[in-house]
Specification:
By secondary structure, the chain is of the alpha+beta class. The chain contains six helices and 17 strands. It has four domains: 1-29; 79-158, no CATH class; 161-171 and 258-316, no CATH class; 176-248, no CATH class. The longest helix is centred in the first third of the chain and has 30 residues, at 8-37.
Length: 320
């Protein structure tokens, strides 16, 4: 007893150590029993693979989404005008009414459709968008829309001759006048050259002082108030160009070599053309055109390669 009192600390320490050893032994035996109760590795793997495959797939999908999150990108859709993440797309106020230019039915700048303006990235909110020329090729958006060309590409344009203006018509009386058939039998004809010199010629004879010969005669008559009127025709042919012209007796005829004065809007250039003359329009010098007909009111232009024709009205010419 005296030893216990004298060595109290040592005794307490010994007891604690004994308790720790017993506790450790208990835990060891308990863990061994738990391990023995677990299924084998092969059984566990099979069971888990069958029981948790849907769950595993969901986990993998969630991990994939987490690793590659979806970012907002307004240009990722086919329409880059559908607004931003926190900002609505643009609506137009017209006649006290909000118009949806993308899905609405009303056209903002007829005849141009809203879809066409959006397709080429044009500012459909601008009231002057029809008259603008974003690619600087000299053609307005309206002109490009009508021709189905690209308003943002200089190479894609409507036909160049649509920018040609017919300003002035020039024509002189023809140099020959058919005065009549003196013999009445259609064998000899009276011709006035330049309204001064009178000649008498037959079929296939060349007229003096003019590059023309007579090739045909047709006796014709009409009636006015019961009185017969001679409207016989004499056909002459240019010996240099083989162009023929019909002369009506006692009537002045216009010279077939008519001229027109034109203006190229693309280059601000004026030039003069004779009927039948071929020409090019700057800046496109590779495409040939031809003035196939002209009158005081209109001129007909033809693309030599394609045969496409365009009629220019003098009354529609713009001032410049």
């Amino acid at each position: 007893m005296d030893w216990a009192k004298k060595n109290y600390d040592t005794l307490v320490l010994g007891v604690c150590m004994a308790l720790l050893v017993l506790n450790a032994a208990y835990l060891y035996f308990e863990s061994s029993a738990f391990t023995d109760s677990l299924p084998t590795a092969s059984t566990s793997a099979t069971s888990n693979s069958v029981a948790t495959s849907p769950e595993t797939q969901s986990i993998e999908e969630a991990r994939s989404i987490t690793e590659k999150p979806v970012f907002w990108n307004e240009k990722s859709s086919s329409n880059n005008e559908r607004g931003n993440l926190l900002v609505s797309r643009l609506y137009i106020l017209k006649a006290d009414k909000l118009i949806d230019p993308i899905e609405g039915q009303e056209q903002l700048h007829p005849p141009i459709t809203n879809a066409w303006l959006i397709k080429f990235g044009l500012n459909y909110a601008d009231v002057n968008v029809k008259d603008q020329d974003p690619d600087g090729d000299g053609f307005t958006n309206l002109e490009e829309y009508k021709d189905k060309s690209d308003p943002t590409d200089k190479v894609s344009t409507p036909p160049k001759f649509t920018k040609l203006r017919f300003d002035k018509f020039e024509q002189k009386p023809f140099m020959l006048v058919f005065k009549g058939n003196p013999d009445g039998e259609g064998k000899e004809f009276q011709i006035n050259a330049n309204n001064a010199r009178t000649q008498f010629k037959r079929i296939n004879e060349t007229i003096d002082g003019a590059p023309y010969k007579i090739i045909a005669y047709s006796k014709k008559e009409t009636e006015k108030n019961g009185v017969p009127i001679d409207v016989s025709e004499l056909t002459v042919e240019n010996t240099e160009t083989q162009v023929s012209i019909v002369l009506v007796v006692k009537k002045e005829t216009n010279d077939p070599t008519s001229f027109g004065e034109f203006f190229n809007v693309l280059t601000n250039e004026k030039f003069r053309l004779q009927k039948g003359e071929e020409f090019t329009l700057k800046p496109d010098v590779n495409t040939k055109f031809k003035l196939i007909d002209i009158s005081p009111t209109e001129a007909k232009i033809q693309d030599v390669a394609t045969g496409t024709t365009s009629t220019l009205s003098k009354s529609s010419s713009s001032a410049h």
